[in-house]
Design goal:
Beta Polymerase, domain 2; 10% strand; 19 helices; five-stranded mixed sheet; elongated; binds cytidine-5'-triphosphate; 4 domains; alpha+beta; Hydrophobic Seed Protein; two-stranded antiparallel sheet; Bact_CCA-adding_enz_type3_sf; 394 residues; single chain
């Protein structure tokens, strides 16, 4: 056995010494079998939360209504969950109340996929009643028992399936895929925040191209909080598969190609406001390089807003997001970030030319702003005027 299982092992010994069962379960066991990094281990037990509290002196009620408590030992915290049974699901979401059971089999039976329904005891032996290890070996995602029932119990599992495809490079078993297609409508019962959380994990997966193909193929894509232009998204994602770009960068690309105002799109996904601002700013920079940017004033305002928050935003940028950070740096160093910052305005143009105001003013100012941004001229009134005259814009 290896870390982080080893440091959690004393908990299992203590629970067993008190006369109950305990073992490792869930994603950690799956990832251990796959040789992936393991962050947190989950312990399942036949002891109820009340019984666990008599065994351990330091506990925190993190999700006691679902049977989960956190045990603090040697400065570390471990989630311990009482065996639960199925049948308490309401409205296609996770159950609001659960029934505690004493049987590990019952607990594993209510789990989503066979690869997630493997337990490991203190000696490193696997308890695998649904052939989860075989699924891991074959790289297949298959529900425990009836696919219809598992998805109807908790429709978020539709998203989880595709997220696992992206993270693990597995494929969906036939019946599981068929059931996803049939139950895609159930996603309307799931909160946007939970869908977004899964989608973001999907965006960080290595096999996102496969995952995106599945999103389209199963119809999940149409149920997502907002749509991106399919063709461009697929193209970007395909390219990204061989690049180091991560979740934030993909948002950026997808937003770049979407017809909608990016802030509107991101709000639909209920992303945290800090992230919305960070992305808006980076996108503003990208758009500044494109001609159509200036017709999108609101986008620009969003970009300016984030300039104020950039310090905080930088603190949240992960190392792998350096590309985005680089982009933000560039944005910050632009000579002007809005048409309003140009030293020439519409009144100047009317005065200089004697012409009537009209759409031509916007076009001329736009061209001058691009020239300033591209470093062709400085943002000085006289210099801009001479440049405009030379270019026969006025
Ligand atoms: N909708 C869900 C969510 C979770 N589970 C079960 O609860 C375990 C723990 O769930 P969670 O920590 O959310 O996901 P992991 O599978 O551990 O994956 P990861 O840690 O990579 O998010 C899963 O392995 C699975 O057995 C489930 O059956 N149905």
């Amino acid at each position: 056995m290896k870390e982080p299982f080893l440091s959690a092992l004393p908990l299992i010994h203590e629970i067993e010494a008190a006369g109950y069962e305990a073992c490792f379960v869930g994603g950690a066991v799956r990832d251990f079998l796959l040789g992936r990094d393991i962050h947190d281990v989950d312990i399942a037990t036949s002891a109820t939360p009340a019984e666990l509290k008599t065994i351990f002196s330091k506990t925190v009620d993190v999700g006691i209504e679902h049977g989960t408590i956190m045990v603090i030992q040697n400065g570390k915290s471990y989630e311990v969950t009482t065996y639960r049974s199925e049948g308490d699901y309401q409205d296609y979401r996770r159950p609001e109340s659960v029934t505690f059971v004493r049987s590990l089999y019952e607990d594993l039976k209510r789990r989503d996929f066979t690869m997630n329904a493997i337990a490991m005891d203190k000696e490193g032996n696997f308890i695998d009643p649904f052939a989860g290890r075989l699924a891991v070996e074959k790289k297949v995602i298959v529900t425990v028992g009836s696919a219809d029932e598992r998805f109807q119990e908790d429709a978020l599992r539709l998203m989880r399936a595709v997220r696992f495809v992206s993270q693990l490079g597995f494929h969906l078993e036939k019946q599981t895929e068929k059931a996803i297609k049939e139950h895609v409508d159930l996603l309307r019962h799931i909160s946007v925040e939970r869908i977004t959380a899964e989608f973001e994990k999907l965006l960080d997966g290595k096999y996102k191209k496969n995952a995106f193909e599945l999103l389209f193929h199963t119809g999940i894509y149409k149920r997502l909080p907002s749509l991106f232009n399919q063709e461009h998204v697929v193209q970007s994602v395909t390219k990204l598969e061989i690049s180091p770009l991560k979740e934030l960068d993909i948002w950026l690309l997808a937003l770049y190609f979407s017809g909608e105002h990016p802030v509107t799109t991101l709000k639909k996904w209920r992303l945290p406001s800090k992230k919305i601002k960070l992305l808006s700013m980076a996108l503003s920079y990208l758009m500044l390089r494109k001609d159509h940017f200036w017709s999108r004033d609101e986008l620009f305002t969003a970009g300016k807003e984030i300039a104020l928050l950039v310090e905080t935003a930088f603190l949240t940028i992960k190392r792998e997001d350096v590309q985005l950070a680089h982009l933000l740096d560039k944005y910050e160093s632009l000579p002007i970030k809005s048409l309003k910052e140009l030293t020439v305005n519409g009144n100047d143009l009317i005065r200089w030319t004697g012409k009537q105001s009209g759409p031509w003013i916007g076009k001329v100012l736009h061209e001058a702003a691009q020239a300033v941004i591209n470093g062709e001229i400085a943002n000085h009134k006289q210099e801009i005027r001479s440049w405009m005259e030379n270019c026969r814009l006025i």
